[in-house]
Every structure is written in C-alpha cells, then in structure tokens.
Amino acid sequence: MLKTGLGNDISAICFLLLLYFLQGVPLGLGASIPLLLQKAGVTYAQQAVFTFAGYPFSFKFLWSGLVDSLYIRHIGRRKSWLFPVQLLIGIFLIFLSVRIDFLLESKNVAVLAACFFILNFLVATQDIVVDGWALTLLSRRNAGAAANCNAAGQTLGAFFGYGFFMALSDPEFCNKWLRSESSPNPMITTASFFAFWGTAFIGLTILIAALKSEKNDVSLKPPPLKETYKTMVDIFKLSSVKTLVLLWFTCNIGSAVAGEASMLKLTERGMSRSTLALLSSYLAPIRILLPMAIERFTSKRALTCWTITAVYGLLSAATSPLIIHFMPKMVLDGTSMYIIVFLSFLDSIFGTVNFVSTMSFHAQISDPVLGGVYMTLLNSAANFGGSWPETFALWTLDKIGDSPIEEPFNLTKIENGEQVLSDFYKWDPIFSLSIICTILGILWFAIFARKLFYLQNLPKKSWLVAHSGSSDKHTSDISYYPLLDDDMASNVIL
C-alpha cells in the first residue's frame, strides 16, 4: 500500500509506472491473438500451440540469476539489461507489424507462437530487471509501492494492448459506439497498432536512457551465479517443496475448460470479442484493490482460502457448458451481457483471492535466508500449473470430436434466416471435456485435499534448507531476486 510522505519517491514511482505500463502492452497484445486466430478460423489444436508463447513466465527463474549477476559496471546493473531488452521489444513489435496480417491470414500459428514466445521472453526479462531496479529506486519506507506500480502500470498497459485494441479494431464496435456514420473498416489495424507501440517502445527507451541515471548500491551486490543455482536445487530437494510443487502442477486440471477454451466457445455462439476484451479491463480495479481488503484473512489460513476458491473454480468449470449452450438464446433476448458481467465479477473476486492466498502462503513458508530464489521457484510452479491445463484443454477439444458450428453465430444472419439457431444447440466436444475434467477435479480433491491442510500445518523448519540454518539469520543478497512472476504481479498489492 502506498504510504504518506512519498517525498522524493514520487518521480521514482512515476518511472516505475511507465516501465510496468510498457510491460503490460505486449502482454495485452499477446492476449488478443487467440481471438484474432479464432476470427481467422484456426482449429483448437492450433490455439493450443499458441499457448506455448506464454510459457517463458513459468520458467524465467532459469535466467533470473544471469540477469542479476552479469552486467556492465559503468552502465549500471539494471540499465545494462533494461535498454537493450526494451529496444529489442520495440524492434520486434515493428517486425511483427510487417508480418502479423500475413501470419494471421495464412494461419501460420507455429511461427506466431515462436514470435510471441521470443517477445514474452524479452518481456519476462524486462520484468526481472524492473522488479530488481525497484529495490533501489524507492526508499525503504515506500518499498511496498513497487507492487502497486506493478499492478496499476501493467493493468493499464494490458488494457491498451488488449481491450482498447480489440475495441478499435472491431468495425461493429466502432460503428455502434464511436462513429456517426457506419464503415466496414476498423478505426485501427493490427499492423498499425503493433507498429505504433514498437515505435513508442524505441522512442521512450532512448528518452529514458538519456534522462534516467542509476545509482549503484554496493550493499546489494549479487551473489555468485553458481551459488544461486545451487540454492534452487537445494530448495527443490525438500520433501515439503516437492509435495507443494506436485499440487500446484496438477491443481487446475478440473477447471481446465473454464479459461480460454470457454471464452472461445462463447465467441463462437455470439458473444462479442471486443466486449469480452473490454470487460476484462473494466474489472481490473477489483484485481488491484481487493488484495488490500482480504490480506488479513488470507494471511492466517492461506491454503484454506485457496481451497475455497479452488472449489469455486471447479464448480464454475462444471457449469460453464450451460452458459455456452444457452449463449445464443441469451444473445437473442439481450441477457447475455448481464450474465457474463455477473460471472466475470465472481471470477475476478475468486481469482484474486486465489492468487493472494497462493502468494501469502509462499511468503509464509519461504526460507528468509534464501528470500527471492525460494519465492521465484514456488511462483513459477504455480504459474506453470495454471498454464498447461489450458494447453491441454484446447488441444483435446479437436481430438475428442468435431465442432458442430461451421460459422460463428451472427445475429443478423439469424434474423435473415441465413443461419439456423438449432445448429448452435448441438452437442459440442467441450461438453464432453468438461465432464472429464470435472471428474478429474473431484478425484484431485479426494486425493490431495488432506495434503493441502497437512502442508498448511507443517512447522516452519520443514521449509528450511539445511545449509541455510535458522530463519533468524540475516537475509542474504539472494533475497533481492524478483519475487513475482509477470502474470501474478499484475493482480496484487503487497
């Protein structure tokens, strides 16, 4: 939470907001690609291929030590990485602006996934750098402002890259809300939007390089690179950590269909793509402000709170086929927006509680001597556990049956008799997949629920690495590694 008496930290806070805003833009652009691919007519198996583009955030701990330890002294520990990385992001966005339309039209998903994998690798690296720089930019009194800057800046950037972009690139949305005269063309094109942000990245990076200096804090000397990776291995050898990682890797299998798969199915049945994109942006304040209100409750029994949200996630996934099935009817009678807004509101609340509970538990159990390395590993495990089920769900949809829908729902065509409403009520593979995942989710709770409470009640010593000794020791330099992964940090205020 931001504290009074910001003093000289105001300029640092504005600088961090800018950096996190820039970080959010390419993340938002990446989030828009599945909707553009669906519009181009790709299969769900191809959508699954694109999900691999987001995996750098699950594995950035592999190179976080390099970013922290290797730098050019006279340039600065953070500037040595920030400026080349941000310049590369800008150049890469401009490169994509030239190829993006062709790649979408040709449905070359593999190349798209590779391009966004590289882009996300660069963004994840920028995240490591900015998280680390925040430690010296802010005074100790206002150190907590870094998480606020992350949440606010990244959320705003993602809005411009996702909600704002999807709205202005949709001719129907522009004609309905923004134009006095209808036009078949969008207000912005995909290529021009990518080119604009690529140019903005390069321009702002050059400006920052010229105007922003970095102070060298000798007290934050990074640990030897070898020591960092040895520490990671030692942490993973703990039986308690192995159990927790197994739980995080498997806990989302029951709710696999509730994410991107359901979103794409809803748009097939008449839900506006631009509306879905804007809705996620409108609900962003909940993800920013709610953590402050619930921190006291989640910190006491973190895994109990997490379990409640996991049960909600399973119920939500189990009932999502009903929403998908009746979406055409709700579009026709005008109730679809109310239903989706209500459900999205619930998802935002429970999703935020889920995240804060996870982060709270990680903070409680992490060996303070090892600090950031410990947190980075646990957060990466939780992040990966949320990523692979979506890949699995999208890939499986094409393997268990053919979609009954040849052309997405169009209200005008329904009214003109060009589409038959009954075609949208046929059995869909996602209904079968939902049943399978629900059964797997119930089995998961039957097998692992007790493990959750077992881990919650373990004594602190069960989480300590033997060579680090007691938690009473002073925190080593290793603790200065970035703690939050990109997707998580945008949803919480510490």
Automatic annotation (TrEMBL):
Membrane topology: Multi-pass membrane protein
Gene Ontology MF annotations: acetyl-CoA transmembrane transporter activity
InterPro entries membership: AcetylCoA_trans_1-like, AmpG_permease/AT-1, MFS_trans_sf
Main localization (coarse): membrane
Pfam entry (one): Acatn
Gene Ontology terms describing biological process: acetyl-CoA transmembrane transport
UniProt keyword Transmembrane, yes or no: yes
Compartments, as annotated in UniProt: Membrane
Entry superkingdom: Eukaryota
GO cellular component terms attached to this protein's record: membrane
Keywords recorded for this protein, A-Z: Membrane, Transmembrane, Transmembrane helix
TM stretches of this protein: 54-72, 81-98, 110-130, 151-168, 188-211, 302-324, 336-357, 369-388, 430-453
Protein name stated in the entry: Major facilitator superfamily (MFS) profile domain-containing protein
Native source species: Oikopleura dioica (Tunicate)
Classification of source organism: Eukaryota, Metazoa, Chordata, Tunicata, Appendicularia
